[in-house]
Amino acid sequence: MATIKLEIVSPDKVVYENDISMLIVRSTGGELGILPHHAPLVAGLVPHAMRIRLGADRDEQLIAVAGGFMEVTPEKITVLATAAEQPIDIDINRAKEAMARAKARIAAFHQGTAEGKDVDIDRAELALRRSIARLRALGSQFEE
Ligand code: ATP
């Protein structure tokens, strides 16, 4: 079975390295499925849980990615992530607390409360999406 090398790098370490059969990512332009021998490509990534398939298996390994870039050549996919974690390295309580903080900021912003005036809404929305990416990578149940 054809494979393609995948390397996921965060600023401080190599998070994942393997020969895989498919990677499904969410780019700024939408969802992309990368197979071996894919045409060269560079894409920006939004916060999400990347899906990795190995061999003919349709089971997927999930990796949380906070954002960054993906470079594809026919032999290799390189993900340069602002932050990325394997599920085993994700602190579920930290992700839930980040989600609660982001939701409270977004609610205050839309209600126009005094605290809401200081909220950077784009930053809060991104923090919410990073927390969702981490909880999705854990397969955790939560309300969006
Ligand atoms: P928080 O508000 O909890 O810091 P964040 O989304 O702002 O969350 P990031 O800026 O994306 O955090 O990441 C900062 C660093 O913390 C990165 O090294 C990232 O891997 C790590 N990190 C963030 N959240 C978690 C988590 N829930 N579990 C494990 N590592 C995490």
Q: What does this entry look like structurally?
A:
With 144 residues, the protein is an alpha+beta fold. The protein has 2 domains: 4-85, Sandwich (ATP Synthase, domain 1); 90-137. The chain has helices at residues 92-111, 121-137; strands at residues 4-9, 14-20, 22-27, 30-34, 41-45, 48-53, 60-72, 76-85. Strands 1, 2, 3, 4, 5, 6, 7 and 8 form an 8-stranded mixed sheet that branches. The longest helix has 20 residues, at 92-111. The radius of gyration is 17 Å and the shape is elongated. The chain starts with a strand and ends in a 7-residue tail after the last helix. The structure holds adenosine-5'-triphosphate.
Question: What does the secondary structure layout of this molecule look like, with pairings?
Answer:
Layout: E1 4-9, E2 14-20, E3 22-27, E4 30-34, E5 41-45, E6 48-53, E7 60-72, E8 76-85, H1 92-111, H2 121-137
Parallel strand pairs: 1-8
Antiparallel strand pairs: 1-2, 3-4, 3-6, 5-7, 6-7, 7-8
Helix pairs in contact: 1-2
Number of helices: 2
Helix proportion range:
25-40%
> What structural class do helix, strand and pairing data support?
alpha+beta
> What's the overall geometry?
elongated
Radius of gyration, in Å, reads 17 Å
Count of distinct structural domains: 2
| Percentage of residues in DSSP E strands | 35-45%
* pLDDT < 50 runs, ≥5 residues: none
Bound molecules: adenosine-5'-triphosphate
Would you give the CATH topology of the largest domain? ATP Synthase, domain 1
Kindly report the name of the CATH homologous superfamily of the largest domain: F0F1 ATP synthase delta/epsilon subunit, N-terminal
- Give the biggest beta sheet: 8 strands, mixed
Work out the number of β strands.
8
What is the CATH C level class of the largest domain, in words?
A: Mainly Beta
The averaged pLDDT comes out at: 96
> How far from one another are the termini?
38 Å
Q: How do the helices and strands follow one another from N- to C-terminus?
A: EEEEEEEEHH
CATH architecture of the largest domain: Sandwich
